[in-house]
Each structure stands twice: as structure tokens, then as C-alpha cells.
Amino acid sequence: MPSFIWDRDPQEAMDNPYEYEAQEQFVREAESILNLFSNELGKFDMKFTVDDRSLEKAIWMLQNDALDSLKDILESLAKKRHRVAGKLFRDIIETLDLAAFFHSNTKESNKNLTKWFDDEIIPHSVHRDYIKKELGDEYAIASRDYYRTISKFTHRTFKILLYGYVLGRNELIAYDGYKDSDILVLPQTIAMYYAIQADFIKFFSYEVYKRGLVPYSRVEEIWEECLEKDSVPRRFITPKEIFERYKKNKNSSQ
Description:
The chain is 68% helix and 2% strand. It is mainly alpha-helical and 254 residues long.
């Protein structure tokens, strides 16, 4: 079984941040997955001319960019540079959503694809409008709310910036970037960011085959090849697990 970080809730990661061995396993697996996806996208090198304005070229370029951002996040978190990682979260969503919008191959998306090749900015709202038309209000609202949450990392809201501060005596705070070392960086912040990163890698895996660049069978092979057979066991039991065990033991004793 792979690292449990792949299915970890970010809030649970904040509450129980000291699963260092599981995070190390996740990093090994994630690096292998991203490297193999690089090999797959690399098969399109020297296929398109600079003047090519095809849909396939646009998707390839956008997904290459998203993949590089995923790698940059992983590298930054390994160095505990969480501020760099957080600023890339929304970038990945916007890039993959733009590729998905172009892939819809509608009159509207084709018009915007032409604008994109003409170096115009295509706002994310165009994708959200497409989602609303195709999938309905409920999905569009969920997509909008998630986008707003991730956008906080880009716009550097108070709570996001607070992840980079240590709480001391008398509610006084200290910036974790004042020292030359990373000794002040909170493990809670890194654990949460790894959980978010896991979701983005899974999202990328879905998008890369959904938009036609990598076959689904190959995506499955990549994950099977890169996920380790034995999971690093949890060091700590979460409050939820304690309660579940309590209920199980209580029921079995009755």
C-alpha cells in the first residue's frame, strides 16, 4: 500500500503533523510519478512547430507548465519553503482548467483558443461559465468555492500568512523566515501542504489522460509502478480513529 498522505485531509494533517516517515514515502512516490509523466509528455517534443496553433499543442504546453509547477512545489516543500509552494497552487488549477476548457472544442472555446495563441489572457471565469453550462449550478458553485479557497494562497490572506509564524508566550508571534535555518518552520504547515499537493497530483493524473495526451492504461501503469508496496505505518492515532476504536471495542464487548 502507498503512503497514506495521498488520501489525507489537510486539516487532519494540521492536527497530526508528525508523520515524517509517511511524508518521506509520499515524496519518493510523488517524484517517481511526476518524472514518468515528464517522460510521457516528452514524447511530444519536436512534434509541433512554433507557428502551430492546434488544440493538441495548446494542451501539451499547458500541461507541461502544470507539471513543472507540481515539481517545483515538491522541491520547495522538501526545503520547507512553503511560501513558494503555496503561490503555485492556484497556478496549477488555472492552467489545467484552461486546457480542459480548450479541450471542450466548442465554438466559444475555439474562439478563446485563437485569442490565447494571439497572446491574450483567458480569465478563469470563462472556464467557470463553461462548467455552469455543461454540469449545472451545483458543480459550478463547488468549483467556484474551491477556487476561492485556493486563491487565498495567491492573494496572501491573513490566515495564509499566519502559517508562516510561530506562536510564542503571551500570544506573541515570530516570523519563521527570520533565521537562516528552517528551524522555525512549523511541521503543521508542511504536513498540510503535502496533503494539498497530493490532491493536485491526482488531479493532474486525471487531466492528462482526460485531455488525450496520455492513455488511461499508461496512467494506471505509472501509479502502479511508483506506489510502494508497503505503507509506512502511522506514528500517531487521530482522535477520530481513537473514537472509532472505542465504538468497535464497546460493540464487541456487548
